[in-house]
Amino acid sequence: MKRIVLASRPPGKPGPENFRLEEEPLPQPGPGEFLARVIWLSLDPYMRGRMSAAKSYAKPVEIGETMTAGCVAEVIASNHDGYAPGDLVVAPLGWATHGISDGTLVQKIDPKAGAPLSAYLGVLGMPGLTAWVGLNDILEAKPGETIVVSAATGAVGSLVGQLARLKGMTVIGVAGGADKCRYAVEELGFDACLDHRAAADAKELGKQIAAAAPDGVECYFENVGGKTLEAVLPNMKTFGRIALCGMIAWYSGAENPAPAPVVWGAILRQRLRVEGFIIFDRYDRQPAFVAEVAPRVADGTIHYRETVAEGLENAPAAFMKMLEGGNFGKQLVRIGAD
Ligand code: NDP
Q1: How many domains does the chain have?
Q2: Scanning 7, 82, 223, 275, which has its CA 20 to 30 A from the CA of 180?
Q3: The three-state (H, E, C) secondary structure of 167-209, written as one string
């Protein structure tokens, strides 16, 4: 089997030197364990945090340890009563071709449900649940309100915007590049989408948001921080709400730090409610999410897009590219045949 381990911790943007491919004999499952072959590997922005030793909500990946990841996999040998060879699962097996599990945090996939296997890592998986929880439970979004969504065409943002449209909200996306913005409006049905890469600074982007939302913004689904956050804040209505889901512009420490007095000042003056959330606390909401979203994915109401890298060897390059916006939709790595 092959796996990719953390070779060193990046001080800023991750580079190829931070990863190492290792090869070893296929492990055998012990009592109460199963062995699975990975079919799809999910690359997610949170993995940048796991490469750092800084204190966070989850423990860091150790040097020499397999990089963390959720995978879709097929059980190929089992000593676990609940899993038999041929079972398809979503499991935290890491950046690897195979993995051993004792069933912790594993979910079985029902092949009769008919969804493509990769969807269980995107629109019907962790990013989809994040979008649904953020919109419904954190923002408590309502019909008739205006919402801004950043990283608007990504795994999380694309579903946030579509669910908000289905609720009868006005949806303004912020995404990187004309192609992504066109897709958000023409295929995802957003009312507008603004290109943060084309805007010279936060002020210019802020003016574009003001033009798209002349009456102001009730809800902001925050995925990025940086320039976009600075642009959205002055457009928030009094008593507006922000779901703080991510801040990818700052994960590698590169983009401008929005000055604290600007951010705190806006929260105070505009009496905003800001709530951070980590989806791993919210898996009790999964049944309600699946019940609402799965039928809409199946009947084509909800669209999603994927960027697929081929083979484990290409996972580091795909991950580094994703952190810079090189993905268009959910970033995956195909490891084995479906
Ligand atoms: P995406 O599929 O959206 O991919 C990341 C995107 O971030 C890139 O495509 C890029 O889009 C955008 N981006 C990168 N750098 C910048 C920048 N400097 N300024 C603005 N946008 C940037 O990833 P996900 O949908 O998986 O995740 C989106 C966010 O949600 C992340 O911040 C992630 O950490 C967070 N998240 C949080 C969870 C939680 O539990 N709180 C769970 C899951 C995700 P573009 O080209 O449009 O700029």
Answers
A1: 2
A2: 275
A3: CCCEEEEEECCHHHHHHHHHCCCCCEEEECCCCCCHHHHHHHH
